[in-house]
């Protein structure tokens, strides 16, 4: 019988199509450890992994002839899987694009608004019973409507954020991208990331993680931002050089930041936690039941397609 490993608890409805398979449902909510990663490749025909399950080249190297043929990732981001090493080992990889787009764009808007309007700081004030009442100059933030947003990575999520900014908030949209885009809203393509950073009120990161984008947002890019501007990262933590961001926030060189992801997730540095001018969310991008069900169904559809000899709907 085909053996499948599900590496985390998933919403109940998701696994029904796998009734005819021998399922191992891991109950832990933490990533696979070193031995579990190797056992996943060695002992199962298919694996449904997710964020944090680090299928690196070393793991593939340690399992000479993997029984596993398919890694059907739960999530659109797959920078935790070395796709080259997987291919070399004859293991196909898939992901769940599209299912995550709107929910993640919504969290980007949440962070933009919270950071610009100092919502986290205000909430802490109320909870600490420190609020002394409304007055005309209390907690003034950045008015977002009509301002400009810079999108770094104008893919599915980047475009969904841009649409919300344009249609919902009357913001002007600028972006950098490697390939040209046909967009259903006005947007100006800027040739250079630093130039983009210098022109916008909010800079939003929506590129995939991985070697190519690591520290794309470094001290130079942060240094190019305007003093009142906010940075929002819903992509992957290591796209932003966290130490440089902490420095910029501590010195008030930028207006603030809203983060859903962290360089050494789930560790969030004390220096960040101590700052008022940063909003910190625990990777909530897709955290809604129906979204997680859609992601799960998509990952399962890739598994069943593989074992029924059909083309994978979402190969990477
Ligand atoms: P996508 O449609 O593939 O868009 C990514 C965009 O980034 C593309 O427009 C792409 O190409 C650009 N890009 C890719 N590699 C790049 C590089 N090396 N340098 C510069 N730009 C690059 O992906 P998506 O569905 O929008 O998702 C984006 C990422 O968001 C995912 O990979 C994932 O890591 C993250 N995410 C986070 C959450 C969360 O919970 N916070 C949820 C879902 C996804 P062009 O430059 O040619 O346009």
Write structural notes for this entry.
The protein has 316 residues and is an alpha/beta fold. It folds into two domains: 3-99 and 289-307, 3-Layer(aba) Sandwich (Rossmann fold), CATH 3.40.50.720; 101-280, NAD(P)-binding Rossmann-like Domain (Rossmann fold). 34% of the residues lie in helices and 14% in strands. The chain has eleven helices and twelve strands. The protein has helices spanning 34-43, 57-62, 83-88, 101-116, 119-127, 156-169, 193-199, 219-224, 242-250, 270-273, 289-307, and strands at 3-6, 22-25, 46-48, 70-72, 92-94, 148-152, 172-176, 188-189, 202-205, 230-233, 256-259, 278-280. Strands 8-7-6-9-10-11-12 form a seven-stranded parallel beta sheet, with helices on both faces. A five-stranded parallel beta sheet has the order 2-1-3-4-5, with helices on both faces. The longest helix is centred in the last third of the chain and has 19 residues, at 289-307. The chain is elongated. 41% of the residues are buried. The model has no long low-confidence stretch (mean pLDDT 98). The structure holds NADP nicotinamide-adenine-dinucleotide phosphate. Residues 76-77, 97, 100-101, 104, 153-158, 177-179, 206-209, 212-213, 234-236, 260-261, 283, 285-286 line the site of NADP nicotinamide-adenine-dinucleotide phosphate. Keywords: NAD, Oxidoreductase. This is 2-hydroxyacid dehydrogenase. InterPro entries: D-isomer_2-hydroxyacid_DH, D-isomer_2_OHA_DH_cat_dom, D-isomer_DH_NAD-bd, NAD(P)-bd_dom_sf.
């Amino acid at each position: 019988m085909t053996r499948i490993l599900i590496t985390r608890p998933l919403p109940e409805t998701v696994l029904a199509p796998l009734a005819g398979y021998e399922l191992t449902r891991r109950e832990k909510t933490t990533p696979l450890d070193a031995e579990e990663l190797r056992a996943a490749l060695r002992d199962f025909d298919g694996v449904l992994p997710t964020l944090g399950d680090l299928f690196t080249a070393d793991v593939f190297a340690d399992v000479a002839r993997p029984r596993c043929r398919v890694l059907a990732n739960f999530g659109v981001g797959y920078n935790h899987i070395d796709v080259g090493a997987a291919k070399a080992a004859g293991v196909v990889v898939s992901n769940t694009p599209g299912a995550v787009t709107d929910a993640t764009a919504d969290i980007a808007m949440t962070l933009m608004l919270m950071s610009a309007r100092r919502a986290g700081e205000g909430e802490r004030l109320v909870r600490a019973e420190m609020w002394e009442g409304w007055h005309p100059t209390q907690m003034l933030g950045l008015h977002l409507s009509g301002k400009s947003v810079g999108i770094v990575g104008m893919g599915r999520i980047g475009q969904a954020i841009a649409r919300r900014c344009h249609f919902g908030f009357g913001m002007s949209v600028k972006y950098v991208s490697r390939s040209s885009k046909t967009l259903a809203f006005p947007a100006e393509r800027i040739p250079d990331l630093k130039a983009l950073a210098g022109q916008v009120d909010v800079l939003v990161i929506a590129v995939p993680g991985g070697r190519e984008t690591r520290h794309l947002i470094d001290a130079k890019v942060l240094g190019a931002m305007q003093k009142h501007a906010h940075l929002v990262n819903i992509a992957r933590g290591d796209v932003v050089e966290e130490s440089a961001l902490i420095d910029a926030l501590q010195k008030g060189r930028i207006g603030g930041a809203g983060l859903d992801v962290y360089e050494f997730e789930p560790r969030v540095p004390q220096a960040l936690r101590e700052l008022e001018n940063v909003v910190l969310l625990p990777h909530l991008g897709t955290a809604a039941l129906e979204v997680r069900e859609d992601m799960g169904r998509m990952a399962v559809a890739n598994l069943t397609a593989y074992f029924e000899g059909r083309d994978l709907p979402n190969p990477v």
